[in-house]
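request received
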Amino acid sequence: MSKRLVVFSIVALVAILAVSSTAFAQSGAAKSDLSGVFARTGALRTLSDPPPPMTPAGKARYEVNKPSYNLPSNPRAIPPALGNDPAGRCDPLGLVRSLFAIGRQYMEFVETPTRIFQFFEWNHVWRTIWMDGRKLPEDPDPKWYGYSVGHWEGDTLVVESTGFDDRTWLDQYGDPFSGSMKLEERWRRVGDTLEMVLKVDDPETYTKPWMGNKVVWRLQPKGEIHEEVCAPIDENFFNENTRNRAGGVSK
Amino acid sequence: MKLIKASFFLISSFLLCTSLFAHHGTGASYDGSKEITLTGTVTQFVWRNPHAQLYFDVKDESGKVLSWSAELNSPGILAQEGWTRNMFKPGDVVTITVNPSKAGTSAGNTVRSKPILIGGKEVVPGRAGRTTVD
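response:
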């Protein structure tokens, strides 16, 4: 074989590898296709049941929260008129609770060159995952949906978030979290599903990291995200005319 | 043997009961083990989040009128079943089955496994699956 052909082949091979390295991350697997409208499956609407043991501070906050949903391992639901679920005031639900919307309330990722947006039908909210290589901020202002940065590990999108405003619940069961919570999410496409695994690291609230069960989101080929705003005017009307009456509380 | 059979029945009924109510936040207000069927005159049909609501006046034997509220699924879910915001108009005579509030007030959670009638005619058939509002 001529020298020129050998040199050409080596250069071509290097070029091919260089180009493919932008689409293939370390492990060699291609990035997952996040596109589509997805519905969460599974009855449990939190990471796992039961949660890890709580610290004294965590327990105190747990007792303050009065939910109307029963966690199977420790049912303590009361009529919502007698409870204090932030959802009943249309206060923001925060990121983790939004990730556990009911199946009928869809979710969709939309990617741009520097970030991924995630849209949640429930409460008509969105959040940003920064993909431009930036690090998490050192001392962020608390935000309801936190501050997220992401990167690819093979076919898995790894998202790390911090800077959460702790004035809402981690889930509908009234499990608490603190402002120093760190959330890790892993997302990957498997056929017509996205698999999501969460990890909550919040030593102020839980005595050990909270590893979530694998959650499967199913592609909805005809699915569309509609407007589902939580409007205080509608929530208050419902509370005054139905919820409170049902709970035996006068207007 | 009878005792074992009876215990099994009791335990499984209890488990079934606990799985039926309080799945949803709103369910915690209502007694899932009771059903009452009411007929009354619609005053308002609220096709809005968080849950659609039907308000209707029910007259008792003495002629006293009591205002009732029946809670329904969210409009988004009802629309998937073919409901529209014009399903009920003030003045319609509606027959609907609800789980009553635990507090004994005139508020109920609509039992979707039972039909809903207007003027004695079925407009919404009973549906399989969850018996109460999701």
